Amino acid sequence: MFRRHSLFSLACTKGLLVASLPMMHAQRAQSSFDKHDAGSESTHDDLHDDLQSELAQVMQSTMAAATGVAASSSSLPTADVDGSSSSAAGGEAIHLTKLVRPPAKFDLLTHSFAYEWRTTARLARKVVGPMREWANEIKYRTGVHVEMDPTYPEKLAAGDYKLADDVEITVYLFGTDRGVVNAQKVMEAAIQQDPSYVRLGVFRRKPDNSDVEWLTLRRINRDHRPPDIPKISLKLPGKYTLLYENYKEAAIRTLWEETGITAPPVEVYPSGYLRSTDPLYFWRVPVRYFVAEVPFGVEVKGPQATKQSYMMGWDSRILRQSPDAIDREWARLANPETGCAWMSASLLDELQRPLRGFHYMATRYTPPPHSGLQEVVNLIGAGTATTQ
């Protein structure tokens, strides 16, 4: 809190600074013209940049003196002589280095400036995502294209890393200098908020007995699909968090995006948390699971956004002839118009066992005790795991 006389001093200081600017400009201009007459290659742009730089330094020093804050404590990114920049983010520093020439695999992106950030998978996956979810958000917000690669692939292949978090990663940024600075700020916010996948399992009670059914859909994973994700996945509703969005908000939002159902927040309960520790799957992000009950007659509208990313409008006669058990059950239970199906927990356990192991539903969707829903869903083999 400033004292009263501090505000007056600050106003006077600002006035002195503004009054001195014309004199600074005249002195700098005269100095530049003198250099030009002596054979210097200085240009008007150089003069403008020098003035902007000096003005920023004077302004920063003046404000620091008036407020009692040292100029060196500023958290703004600072450019070094070698073209690198750094900025602190909640105890984590992002250091960007400008590249003279990016790796050959990014030849198509060489029309932009290229920067790199050396880090580990613990942070890198938060700004890229397994299927480029957050890299796409950064590009949407700043226009900067983001890629990542293992820094030492030979060490990864040799099993030199004990945990997925420890895998050394190089993150590449392609864009304008201004765009990269903006992207750096978005990345700092992302690594502080710990972005995650979310799933919201919604179930309904059958009116004729005590059984419950869970709503499912099938997503088509076309682009940037990691090896451990099938081309067409069987899943319960849910996607991933966006920047400045908490986990429950993301679960409710993505439930509507994929099914057209809106769940009241007070009826949504956290049910599980899974994270990967295997270095071979360093791109995996944590998954947070939620559960909610919906009325039996709830209207399922199907995907409300990016409908081309979901399996819809299929020919059931073809699916019945598929060697895949998921296809055959999908032909029997799913609605081609909505792309969704109601399935029992036991059937989901059976269909997911080859890829996800035993107790698929109980591990992820067992409601917490305070919800009063454990006896309703009656999942077998209940237990919450922390690794996947």
Automatic annotation (TrEMBL):
<keyword id="KW-0378">Hydrolase</keyword>
<keyword id="KW-0732">Signal</keyword>
<dbReference type="InterPro" id="IPR015797">
    <property type="entry name" value="NUDIX_hydrolase-like_dom_sf"/>
</dbReference>
<feature type="signal peptide">
    <location>
        <begin position="1"/>
        <end position="31"/>
    </location>
</feature>
<protein>
    <submittedName>
        <fullName>NUDIX hydrolase, putative</fullName>
    </submittedName>
</protein>
<dbReference type="GO" id="GO:0016787">
    <property type="term" value="F:hydrolase activity"/>
</dbReference>
